[in-house]
Structure formats: C-alpha cells, structure tokens
Amino acid sequence: SAVISQKPSRDICQRGTSLTIQCQVDSQVTMMFWYRQQPGQSLTLIATANQGSEATYESGFVIDKFPISRPNLTFSTLTVSNMSPEDSSIYLCSVGLAGFQFFGPGTRLTVL
Amino acid sequence: DQQVKQNSPSLSVQEGRISILNCDYTNSMFDYFLWYKKYPAEGPTFLISISSIKDKNEDGRFTVFLNKSAKHLSLHIVPSQPGDSAVYFCAAGTGTASKLTFGTGTRLQVTL
What is the mean pLDDT of residues A63-88? Predict the structure, then answer.
C-alpha cells in the first residue's frame, strides 16, 4: 500500500480566489489521480497526473480551472482557480500502485 | 451518463446478519472492479477487487460476486459488524492500473 497525505485537510475560501492542494506519497509512483466528490455525489475523476508529462483532463474539466503540477514521483498539486460556491467539494488524490488505487484523506473545500 | 450505478443509497442490517450491496455497470469494456469503504472525513479505503476472468473473490468476511452477462456485481459482508457502518463505493476500470469510474455509493448502517 501507500501512505498519502494531503494539505490542507479543509479550507473555507472566498469566491474568486484560488486554492492549491498538495498531495504527498511515501513512495515513488508513476500514476497519480485527482478526484472530486461533490456533496451527496460519487467520486469524479478530474485528471490523471503523470510525472514528466502534461496532466490528462477528463471531460468537463479544463487546465485553466484546475491546473496540476507533478514535479516528481512523490508529489503533486491541484489548484482550484477562480472559485465559486459550486466548487465546494472534497478533493482527493490517489495513486495507482500494484494494480490498485490508494486514496489520500481528502481536502474539504467550502467556497462562500 | 452514469456508467456505474448503485441504486440503493442506504441499507440497514442487523449485526451478525449478511449485508448485500449491489452495483450495476453499463460499459462492457470494464474488466476490473473494486469496492471501497469510506468513513466520514477520510479517503476511500480499498476493500476487495475482482477481475472479469473470475466470478467470485473472497477475503475473510467480504465476498464479491461478478455476473458479467448481467453487468452486475455485489458485495457480501457476513457476518456484519457495527464497524462496517460506512459508505461503500463500487468502482470499475479497464485494466488494473487505469482510471476508475465510481458508483454513487451505498451507506451501510449495521445496527446492534
């Protein structure tokens, strides 16, 4: 398995601002994923972040809104830009390892 | 288009009895299925998986059944324990290292 930490664990932000969420893994992994879980909904994949290449975004998600960095094999960031109340969600990173995906604890974001 | 569906948003079971959580999928390309358990304020935790070459996988109290012709899988927990109370997500992918599509979750409550 992998130990994954996320910072911050929660935040309350004002409309129009941006927040960067950090994801740290205790081992080197090739594939990292960012998910969003809106209130009462399922987990939705935002993008796949592979080291050394541009992130691959899913339908409905764009780089300008959710820029992602992957500077090395143990770390990634997701920025939620120009936030609106609709961005209030739990944001989770996960890593693909040995055929499974392991998840971080999530970042609970509230946008006022 | 919800490719993975969990039609029961909640389920209540008495301690010691069997819990059966169901999941249906529509994409015939899915060949790898997983169940995750999620407690509040935590990330999803991997529980058990099954590949499409099998129709059953067992791990202790947890058994997953796959019916490919019906595009249906189920998770059986027996005997159910109060610590099993959580939200359960089924997820599907193509290949073991691929991105996952999640269902909407079923909240299981195990009562004394």
Answer: 96
